[in-house]
Amino acid sequence: MTDKEMLDCAFRQGFANAALVQTSRIVFDPSFRPYCEENLCGQYGVNYSCPPSCGSPEEMKQRILAHDRAMMLQTIWQIDDYNDAPAIKSAKGSHNRAALALAKELRAQGQGGFLVGASGCALCSPCELSAGKPCRFPDLRYSCMSAYCIFVRKLAEECGIEYDCGDGLLAFFGMYVLD
After folding, report:
1. What CA–CA distance (Å, rounded) separates 55 from 80?
2. How far apart are the first and last CA of the chain?
3. What is the pTM of this model?
């Protein structure tokens, strides 16, 4: 697939912005990992895609750096109240569903890779980890940008994508790391 064809796929899936970036340009900051450990999302230790099960910050970094390029993805949502957890969860879920659809489309067209989501994997609820069973969808499972310790603001700048979209707007970010 050409770069234009991949980006066109992203826009067809509803992403507001998409850009290709060399993985060597991604800034990783392991000091972000404690945010996962605070467990505000409730997934720490109970989801294969989240710490500590997903891997150490260095292992996650190396997983991305084993590939040359990634496609940065952004969705933008109108939101009346930044404390409206159900609205934020719904928007994040929509972002990740679009990212999964994009990943499936790219794979169907021969562009392998893996997804980095706006949150931890939600393909199964609850995650099979909580029952001590293996992941049912290891090829689709995705970890979030935070689990990878990606400095998202700097990555957005590198890609020419606005990080702060303005009052009443909320942006979510993800990536498709290209094989």
Report:
1. 36
2. 12
3. 0.93
